[in-house]
Amino acid sequence: MIASAEKEKLNNSESDVELEDSGRNLPAISTEAGENRALLIFNPIAGDNRAMRILPSVIKHMTDRGYICTTLTTTGPGTATEYVVKLGGEVGIIVCSGGDGTVNEVINGMMQLPADKRPRFAYIPAGSTNDFANTLGIPKKAEEAISVLTDGECVPIDVGCFNGRYYAYVSAFGAFTDIAYTTSQDAKNIWGPLAYFVKSVGKLKDIRPIRARFIINGEEIEDTFILCAISNSKIIAGVIKLKQSWVNMSDGLFEIMLIKYPSNAIETGKIVNALSTGELKSCEFIRMFRADEIDVTILEDEPISWSLDGECEKDVRHAVIKNVHGALNVMVSAKA
Known about the structure:
By secondary structure, the protein is an alpha+beta fold. About 25% of the residues lie in helices and about 35% in strands. The strands form 4 sheets. Strands 7, 8, 9, 10, 11, 14, 15, 16, 17, 18 and 19 form an 11-stranded antiparallel β-sheet that branches. It has a 4-stranded parallel β-sheet with strand order 4-3-5-6, with helices on both faces. A two-stranded antiparallel sheet has the order 1-2. The longest helix has 17 residues, at about 185-200.
């Protein structure tokens, strides 16, 4: 049964009609869409329950500013997408709090709505990595992030489409993606970017090389790689940082990073140094591109898994990744 912060009507004029999907009941918001209506979607277990601790403050902030709020908590994989598909077209803004995985689900739901029915999107980070929020410049302090919901600036951003599945900021495969997204931010903070990365790399024998062919801007690149990241973000996995001047979340282009497989410890050291200093373009084992569409074919005997905003996409042999330019309008800090 879907959990809701408010099972009863939030307003006497609200409809009692319920929407049904796969045996679940969702409260109908209204027969008419309205700018003063907000759909709040919170992940109750993200970030050591941080989302639920700030929920009362979010509701108060929104209602004090005239919004009628419908509040739902996620109960498992896919529920955030379901909420948005059923209810998102009836509100003026969707507020999400959780980790990058929760954002991924909400954005997938929003992209299933007609473009003229997509509401504004606002995010309060509550997960362990929060690359999306960091790139958007959303404040880490809860009270500051909450103020952005109504007092921030609304800007368009691009969205990635991976074989028909949407993502917010990064699709990636390689030796470090699993470790990066399954390790807590506290552990990353303790180790520091360089030490954490060295810990992730370990010994050369632990790195699984992946042979792949890319078509980028008409150029065909075939080689053996340890990491591929196709991103629209200044930070990847909470560890790898791109220079701010490289990244524009609304320019219609991805930043693509391909790291070749190193054959010895010296080559590995050059890669580690480039990633830790941010001087990626100076390393001969790292290739950087910008493009709006990428075609990838995996040349291994078995298909591989990709990470989309930290969520696993299994059994991929071939992928076409497209940039959907200006697909969403997102609330960001006016100082971002």
